Amino acid sequence: MEKIKAVIIGMGRMGRTRYDAMQRHGGYEVVALCDKEISNLDGYMERKFSDWKDCIDSSEMDAVFVCTYNVVIPEIVCYSLEKGYAVFSEKPPGRNLQDTLRMKNVYDGLGAPVLKYGFNHRYHNSVMEAKALLDSRILGDIVCARGVYGKAGSPGFAREWRNDAQISGGGIMLDQGIHMLDLMYYFMGEFTEIQSSVDQLVWKDMPTEDSAFSILRTADGKVASLHSSAIQWRHKFSLDLICTKGFISLDGLLTSTCSYGEEKISYYRKDLEQKTGGLGRPMEHTMCFDSDQSWDYEIKEFYEAVAEGAPIREGTIRDAVNLMKILERIYKGEKTC
Ligand SMILES: NC(=O)c1ccc[n+]([C@@H]2O[C@H](COP(=O)([O-])OP(=O)(O)OC[C@H]3O[C@@H](n4cnc5c(N)ncnc54)[C@H](O)[C@@H]3O)[C@@H](O)[C@H]2O)c1
Fold first, then answer.
1. What is the reported pTM?
2. Do residues 184 and 90 share a domain?
3. What are the start-end ranges of the E strands in the chain?
4. Residue 96 and residue 182 in one domain
5. What pLDDT, in 10s, does the model give residues 58-93?
6. Pocket (CB within 6 angstroms of ligand 1)
7. Residue 227 belongs to domain with CATH number
8. How many structural domains compose the chain?
């Protein structure tokens, strides 16, 4: 197997997650690591840098993984692309639409280099099953969706970089809600009408929102409601996908903390004649999953793009721009298109 030489910039939680996934894959050779807090690199044997430019300029590599705070993502992504490297970047694609468009301009100017954003939720087993079910059309066409993605904050939540608007660009909606928004966009297509309420309901001593409600509508009339919350207090992931001939329910999500519960997908066919159960209680088909391979699937897709010239399928720059356009409108609290 051809080895891709990679560097990772930002060795916090996600940098380490990507590092581990690359080791499991076997097709990567991590040649250097960078973190502005050099002590975060203790225990690693690779070359170590505290300055990301120095790391990129002094290393021989094929790919750069950008796992830093949101504020520096565009600069590192653009610099790496311009140097001719493939880039894997964490979500969100910068702090705002302007940041994302900056990366798109460089991408377009270079004739579509390899650039992938880490929207790993698309690779969760329940999500992949839901996509296959929708694509099969055995439940008809999706017409609406209802999603809740909520967490409990943490003791130092208000002081985390994620809630420093200068560094992150937004609060819970940009940090976590973007994953649910991405799934809705993945399943339903582009949203053209948006209503939202973005609020600080409990964590009032920080500059970012702790709750965002949105109602989203596609040009062909599909409707979605989304609640992104840092005040759920008990972690929750729930997504209902309602189709013309049935219903899919995603409940729970496997993460490293296991705090979102068991990952489960159930689906039901519309059965008004009660052939499979009582009225309103049709036969249930359920699958439960006990492992999260999303990081491995992502790293595999990126490997195939860099080593074999395959196209990036999930987390493209187009996805990134579309999502950030919707997010910008959610933050504006837009009422109509
Ligand atoms: N896909 C997902 O599900 C997921 C989950 C969590 C975080 N993320 C994203 O990953 C990114 C990192 O989040 P995290 O949870 O790993 O945060 P983190 O705080 O654990 O790690 C970030 C690291 O980047 C380093 N860093 C910041 N600026 C730097 C710079 N200029 N040069 C070098 N190093 C720098 C920090 O010192 C820190 O070690 C964020 O963009 C976040 O939104 C994605």
1. 0.97
2. no
3. 4-9, 28-34, 47-49, 63-66, 86-90, 115-118, 142-150, 191-199, 211-218, 223-229, 236-243, 246-251, 263-269, 285-289
4. no
5. 999 999 999 999 999 999 999 999 999 999 999 999
6. 9-14, 34-37, 40, 52, 67-70, 72, 90-92, 118, 120, 175
7. 3.30.360.10
8. 2
